Automatic annotation (TrEMBL):
Organism of derivation: Salvia miltiorrhiza
Family: Belongs to the cytochrome P450 family.
The protein's name in its UniProt record: Gibberellin biosynthesis-related protein KAO2
Binding site for heme: C425
Pathway linked to the protein: Hormone biosynthesis; Plant hormone biosynthesis; gibberellin biosynthesis
Cofactor or coenzyme needed: heme
Function: Catalyzes three successive oxidations of ent-kaurenoic acid giving gibberellin 12 (GA12), a key step in gibberellins (GAs) biosynthesis. GAs, which are involved many processes, including stem elongation, play a central role in plant development.
Membrane topology: Single-pass membrane protein
GO terms assigned for molecular function: ent-kaurenoic acid monooxygenase activity; heme binding; iron ion binding
Any one cellular-component term (Gene Ontology): membrane
Predominant subcellular localization, coarse grouping: membrane
GO biological process entries: brassinosteroid biosynthetic process; brassinosteroid homeostasis; gibberellin biosynthetic process; sterol metabolic process
Length: 477
């Protein structure tokens, strides 16, 4: 092969590479005109794929922070307020996106409803439902939030569920101690799923709960996956799981509607009854699809975050014996100070557990269950000196806020484990209550013995040990 031919191949390679690397620039940036110079630095990645390979590679490694950290070395960055702010343009889940990581920028994106609306990936919308909280906004969002948030928030609502949670926590710990070897995370997810089922579908029975429970793991693996509907891909299996979930829930909704037609005066027992009876100021009622999408999302969110956080709180306490003993001493003091004749915990007692609540908050910070949320700019928006163009996605990168050693402290407004603004997780108080009740009884009477303390950690779809925290729950005197 002659030198001239080699040079020719090399030139062709460089041209092809240049074209491929600039496709996204031509698709998304050049149309912005002069405004493109207001974009943050960054790399839009390859056509179609964008930056998804580097995203997935980082979160399947031992250092998920590398997806954002390497930007400090490759791009310019600004210091905004208390922390290093990295703003970068990327193509994530097939969309031109700006990743925001400073507390100021994150709060702006989360709280400015005039400038931003939900912007979740196709996979999330398809699996959670097009009429779920993930996609609706405006008056529909306000109405559905009011319907579903008030029954799980506030002292009266939380006190209503405390006895049920307590009874199931005590029974579960007793049962696990007798079972021997268990997957601690798997059992916790079953426990928290039973609790959220009681709140939303209490009268449907264990057969419905078991039918739903088995499909939620598959559903979760697809929520943060690329929307590739081909056998072998997570999204494909998650769609099949959603179909099963929808079928079970549709039967439950149909059955419940028939019961209420036959007996209109029957008392409301759970959230589904509230949803079936609800009407807005114009008399509009929720249709079956809306109710099912609400249930799919709430049943999922209502057990995954509390189950994972509870596991990590127990693991972290077990790894730090001095903290375990301090937290246990607080629980023992709570019991000692209890009035004679009182059985079980009260909401007032839980709110006075200063150290345990700090343990829970620190676990929420370290784990950062939701690694990011997706918003879409409704107009061109300036955020901390950079422009997010209309139609582009804004990814709120919680991990950078929570892991900033210089700027983080819980009282500063930099603590966002449940989001912020009008879309703050409506079940945050319930989740923290569940975790506190579990840890109270765990600290008093049990300890966790992990079989594989060095088990690798997986970060997608949520942070967990690869072995689901295999081990034993041992009762202590």
């Amino acid at each position: 092969m002659g030198l001239g031919l080699l040079v020719g191949y090399f030139v062709v390679f460089l041209i092809v590479r240049l074209v491929v690397r600039n496709v996204n620039y031509w698709l998304y940036e050049i149309k912005l005109g002069e405004k493109r110079y207001e974009l943050p630095p960054g790399d839009m990645g390859l056509p179609l794929i964008g930056n998804m390979w580097s995203f997935l590679r980082a979160f399947k490694s031992t250092n998920p922070e590398s997806f954002v950290q390497h930007l400090l070395h490759r791009t310019r960055y600004k210091r905004a307020g208390s922390g290093v702010a990295v703003y970068t343009r990327r193509t994530v889940y097939g969309n031109p996106s700006i990743i925001v990581t400073s507390p100021e920028a994150c709060r702006k994106v989360l709280t400015d409803d005039d400038a931003f609306q939900p912007g979740w990936p196709v996979s999330t919308l398809d699996l959670m439902g097009r009429k779920s909280f993930a996609n609706i906004f405006g008056n529909d969002h306000k109405w559905q939030r009011k319907l579903t948030a008030s029954p799980v928030n506030g002292s009266e609502a939380l006190s209503l569920y405390m006895k049920y949670i307590e009874e199931n926590v005590v029974a579960a710990l007793h049962r696990w101690a007798a079972m021997g070897r268990i997957e601690f995370l798997t059992e916790l997810r079953r426990l928290t799923f039973k609790i959220i089922m009681h709140i939303f579908l209490s009268s449907e029975g264990d057969h419905v709960r078991e039918a739903l429970e088995k499909d939620y793991t598959l559903l979760n693996y697809g929520v943060r996956a690329m929307a590739i509907n081909v056998p072998g891909f997570a999204y494909y299996h998650a769609l099949k799981a959603r179909k099963s979930l929808v079928a079970v829930l549709q039967r439950a909704v149909t059955r419940r509607r028939a019961q209420r037609r036959e007996n209109p005066s029957c008392p409301k027992k759970d959230m589904m009854d509230n949803l079936l009876e609800a009407a807005d100021e114009k008399g509009r009622r929720l249709d079956d699809e809306e109710i099912i999408d609400i249930l799919v999302m709430y049943l999922n969110a209502g057990h995954e975050s509390s189950g994972h956080t509870t596991m990590w709180a127990a693991v972290f306490l077990q790894q730090n014996p001095h903290m375990f003993e301090k937290a246990k001493a607080e629980q023992e003091e709570t019991v000692r100070n209890r009035p004679a004749g009182q059985k079980g915990l009260t909401l007032k007692e839980i709110r006075k557990m200063d150290y345990l609540n700090k343990v829970i908050d620190e676990t929420l910070r370290v784990v950062t269950f939701s690694l990011t949320v997706f918003r879409e700019a409704k107009k061109d928006v300036n955020v901390c000196g950079y422009m997010i163009p209309k139609g582009w996605k804004a990814l709120v990168w919680f991990r950078s806020v929570h892991y900033d050693p210089e700027g983080f402290h819980t009282e500063s407004g930099n603590f966002m484990p449940f989001g912020s603004g009008s879309r703050l997780c409506p079940g945050n108080d319930l989740a923290k209550l569940e975790i506190a009740i579990f840890l109270h009884y765990f600290l008093l009477n049990y300890e966790l013995e992990r079989e594989n303390p060095a088990s690798p950690v997986m970060y997608l779809p949520h942070t967990r040990p690869k072995d689901n925290c295999l081990g034993r729950i041992r009762r202590v005197s």
